[in-house]
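Example S7 (structure tokens).
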């Protein structure tokens, strides 16, 4: 299964009934993924035999109407795109100079269905951001521990009768993660097997009741970096044929 197939499956969870009609016309999220992938492949620079550097800052321009539809998905879409850029680079053995930043920007100069990607290679610190993905929604993991359960006292509340009020917790020390069952009634599974406590690897799946929770670690740009190192979305658009649209 390819990266785009994985993206479409992840997006299917995010785009529920409320957004089902949103993507029947105009720009499709999977076309943004294809444009980002092409931008990375085109801009890959061979630095040495074992180092191929690719851009890590992206401006994705689209029509205001398309931007409004994409923006309705909230941060989950940008997180999904960041995750896929990260995986594509790893699969091709590409490297980044810093964390990944993706900005979706409305551009009145573009018609619906068109997308333009601009990129820069910017050196900077990487902020490894751990998240829990539940039904296409991303929940940041607190440093220390994040309690998952049905009760209101849980940090991540599940609407699931199969979950205990304080069912399990995810521990994060800034570099590594663990999952620990908190004596729940129905138990906790990790990648299909029952666990009491275990190390969490990226993309591993925690199952609690009927809920499927995916652990991800995103390589994002450190938010403490200065604004001077960022791409300005208001800067003039490039004119180098960098427009990509759906195949018609």
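Recovered sequence:
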């Amino acid at each position: 299964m390819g990266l785009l197939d994985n993206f479409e499956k992840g997006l299917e969870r995010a785009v529920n009934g409320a957004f089902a009609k949103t993507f029947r016309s105009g720009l499709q999220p999977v076309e943004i993924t294809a444009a980002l992938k092409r931008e990375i492949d085109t801009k890959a620079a061979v630095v040495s035999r074992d180092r191929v550097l690719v851009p890590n800052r992206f401006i994705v321009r689209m029509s205001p109407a398309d931007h409004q539809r994409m923006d309705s998905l909230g941060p989950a879409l940008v997180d999904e795109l960041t995750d896929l850029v990260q995986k594509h680079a790893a699969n091709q053995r590409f490297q980044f100079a810093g964390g990944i930043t993706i900005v979706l920007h409305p551009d009145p100069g573009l018609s619906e269905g068109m997308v333009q990607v601009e990129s820069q290679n910017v050196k900077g610190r990487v902020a490894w951001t751990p998240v829990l993905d539940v039904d296409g929604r991303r929940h940041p993991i607190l440093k220390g521990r994040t309690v998952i359960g049905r009760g209101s006292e849980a940090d991540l509340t599940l609407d699931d009768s199969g979950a205990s009020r304080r069912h399990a917790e995810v521990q994060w020390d800034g570099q590594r993660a663990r999952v620990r069952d908190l004596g729940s009634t129905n138990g906790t599974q990790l990648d299909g097997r029952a666990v009491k406590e275990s190390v969490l690897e990226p993309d591993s799946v925690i199952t609690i009741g009927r809920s499927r929770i995916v652990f991800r670690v995103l390589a994002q740009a450190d938010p403490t970096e200065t604004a001077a190192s960022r791409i300005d979305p208001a800067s003039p658009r490039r004119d180098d044929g960098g427009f990509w649209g759906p195949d018609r």
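Notes on this example. Confidence is low (pLDDT under 50) at residues 11-22, 238-248.
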